[in-house]
């Protein structure tokens, strides 16, 4: 088998990991980012619950799930309609994010100049440059459409981000990688979404969130 692993190192301003035990009541949880998290992925470890995701572009009244293709759904019991701060994030009463005595792991990401970019863009159906403030391009890219159903496209430089075909995996699928498409191209400032990209990446007026790492 060909295997692929992503390793993220906890670092101030970039990424943190928090493990906690649920209470069943809405409450805040401390984190160590020292800046406001822009993307949060939370998973219950003692149950088969989904990977509930916050992104600053959709706000704390809504959520996505990394394990499915759904649109951004409104539900106050996930993030308690409360945006995270530079010291805490908030969970609501929903069992999948805060069951009493449940065990949870949370991954938090933020934009760090020259290192990472948590952002969003509006599709054009034409070639689209996404500026992440980098100088040597992105080595990891995760993209999800939010205004309609769409996959979680994942690219990395280990498998190839080039002017030709770029292999991708879908985080919401167990399918093998796709290797014969040219949906993204390299860009020193970040990455380019090509005009041949499908609606899941570049529909005219579609809205998308992304996490890119230099």
What would you say this structure looks like, in words?
A 6-stranded antiparallel beta sheet has the order 1-8-3-4-5-6. 37% of the residues are buried. The mean pLDDT is 97. Helices cover 6% and strands 36% of the residues. It is mainly beta. It has helices spanning 76-79, 95-98, 199-202; strands at residues 15-21, 27-30, 39-44, 51-55, 62-65, 73-74, 88-91, 103-109, 116-122, 128-131, 140-145, 152-156, 169-170, 184-187, 190-193, 207-213.
The gist of it:
By secondary structure, this protein is mostly beta strands. It has three helices and 16 strands. The strands form four sheets. A six-stranded antiparallel sheet has the order 1-8-3-4-5-6. A five-stranded antiparallel sheet has the order 9-16-11-12-13.
Widest sheet: strand ordering: 1-8-3-4-5-6
* Uncertain regions spanning at least 5 consecutive residues: none
Oligomer: single chain
Mean pLDDT: 97
| Most strands sheet | 6 strands, antiparallel
Number of DSSP-assigned strands: 16
- What structural class do the secondary elements suggest? mainly beta
Give the radius of gyration: 17 Å
Distinct helical segment count: 3
One letter per element, helices H and strands E, the order comes to EEEEEEHEHEEEEEEEEHE
- What percent of the residues sit in helical stretches (DSSP H or I)? under 10%
Strand content: 35-45%
From the spread of the alpha carbons, the general shape counts as: globular
Alpha carbon gap, first and last residue: 27 Å
């Amino acid at each position: 088998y060909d295997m692929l692993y992503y390793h993220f190192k906890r670092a101030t301003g970039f990424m943190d990991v928090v493990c906690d035990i649920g209470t069943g009541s809405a409450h805040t949880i401390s984190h160590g980012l020292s800046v406001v998290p822009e993307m949060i992925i939370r998973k219950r470890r003692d149950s088969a619950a989904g990977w509930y995701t916050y992104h600053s572009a959709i706000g704390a009244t809504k959520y996505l799930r990394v394990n499915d293709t759904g649109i951004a759904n409104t539900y106050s019991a996930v993030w308690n309609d409360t945006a995270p701060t530079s010291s805490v994030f908030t969970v609501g009463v929903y069992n999948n994010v805060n069951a009493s005595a449940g065990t949870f792991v949370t991954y938090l990401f933020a934009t760090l100049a020259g290192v990472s970019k948590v952002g969003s863009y509006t599709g054009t159906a034409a070639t689209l440059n996404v500026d992440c403030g980098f100088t040597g391009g992105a080595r990891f890219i995760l993209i999800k459409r939010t205004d309609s159903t769409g996959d979680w496209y994942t690219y990395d430089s280990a498998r190839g981000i080039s002017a030709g075909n770029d292999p991708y995996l879908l985080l919401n699928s167990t399918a093998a990688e796709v290797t014969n498409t040219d949906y993204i191209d390299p860009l020193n400032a970040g990455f380019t979404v090509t005009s041949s990209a499908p609606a899941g990446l570049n529909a005219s007026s579609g809205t998308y969130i992304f996490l890119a790492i230099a």
